[in-house]
Amino acid sequence: MKKRIISVLLSCALITTMLWGCGSSGQDTQETGKAKAAQEEEAAAEPGFVPGEFPISQEPITIKIMVPITASHSKSLGELDFLKEYEEKTNVHIEWEEVSSEAYAEKYKLTLASGDLPDAFGSGFSYDPSIIYKYAKEGLIVPLDDYIESSTVNIKKWMDGYDEFRKLSTYPDGHIYALPSIDENKNIRIDRLLFINKTFLDKLGMDMPATLDELGDYLRKVTTTDLNGDGKPEYGMSFEAVQDQPSIYTFLFGLFGVSWDTKSYMHSQEGTNQLQFAPAMEETRAALEYFHEWYKEGLLDPENFTQNSTQLKAKAKTEGIGASVAFWYLSLNDGDESVNEYRVMNMLEGPNKNQVWRRNGLIPGYSANQFFITSANEHPEETLAFIDYWMDNSDNALINRFGPQGYSWDYLDNGKWTELANIPSGEPRTMENSTLYATWGHGIPYWCFADFWAEKEITADSALERQEAINGSYINVAPPGLPDLVYEENENREALNIKTDLFKYVDSQIAQFITNGVTDDNWNEYLNKLDNLQADRWAELYQKYYDIMMGE
Hints:
The chain is an alpha/beta fold. It folds into two domains: about 45-185 and about 365-455, Periplasmic binding protein-like II (D-Maltodextrin-Binding Protein, domain 2), CATH 3.40.190.10; about 190-360 and about 460-550, D-Maltodextrin-Binding Protein, domain 2 (3-Layer(aba) Sandwich), CATH 3.40.190. Helices cover about 40% and strands about 10% of the residues. It has 22 helices and 14 strands. A hairpin with a 5-residue loop joins strand 12 and strand 13. Helix 12 runs parallel beside helix 20 (about 490-515) and helix 20 packs across helix 22 (about 535-550).
């Protein structure tokens, strides 16, 4: 399947568009065009260093990078020991502008529109390719092609060796403007899974649920019983409210037969390329009606529409929650199972025996548009050389991602490597204590391909459980992921205008329907509003460019 998709991608020209933001006057366009031409000419020159050798710069230089940071990052990136040592080695100092992940989507757009730019925008966020292309055409984001050839070792090697990734990173005008993160770990082909509080389940003397109805029976007992001894019933199903994505409730809608792609809100079915607009499907209505009943009974945490990951973790770790849809147990208890132990559930059956679950992306593991350089950067070669070192598909990538060898990962006697469940102090490894030593993929992309992950031996019970659940259950009912398409300029503006208002309305209505219920009247009013917001046109455009990409 992957080879077929890639062959299509190689033959398909991606096309992109203009987005919202400040327009340029003729003079501004002329000036930025001259600046861009000068930058491209400069890119063709040889760098003042030997790629792969140190120092990168003979004189100390400073590079400013804006980067998203989560609440779980215990240290600023500039305080990480391995980066401080690397800065001394390279003569390159990074001044990190760290922005909360919750605010980052809006912040980076405003920053680009203002023209007051950092030297680069760092990884940990999937930047909108249309925005990148818009500002690239205005000369504010620089092409990386020549810099990759002249100033890098790893990036050049992998781009040459994995032609599909070079093609996926190339924009319609033939340039690479942003670098991806690449992580072909099969254990993350599915993003979020169903988790249950095993501590609560054991106290209630119940078996692991196999159906959504059985999960409801369990949640009814959880929410009417004091299981942690604090004198009040417990939370039922609880999860975070994600930013710039549809509600996590839409994962559960798969138990009614509808997949709900994160970027397009389209439904895809295995074995066909015909897509549907998921929010308008009758299966979506059935899911909303079902979960409204759960909401009325108090089985769903009312804060599911508002709480962030930190608030969820604080609740799940101490008081305990009955169940969740999460990436893994560290998202819930940080690996501290002394109070609440969470375990992965196998894929449940819906009320009509439906089983559908969402899968990550068209090519799992490839996260496009993770790092780009702006026209404010006076040292683009040095910037790429600085991050290139950490994208080696080996130890450096692991250190960037997980921290130093022996802390949260190590080599085994058989030559393979593994993630460690506990840090050297004996404490469980958590996001917080991991980010004392690692970027966790923020700021500097990391590249780990399938061959390197094949050299990993999974030893942690939780990771083995996750892998078994994915391979034995979730992946079998996950239709192919859908791509984040880029349109031709004359249709992109139309699609973007539709998408902005349409998705915002859908997201608000999910909350309204689950909270207040679905009737014939309000559902018909909702469908009429979708018509007014041109949902059919959105679906038509997405289907058109999806068919082009798939070679239909």
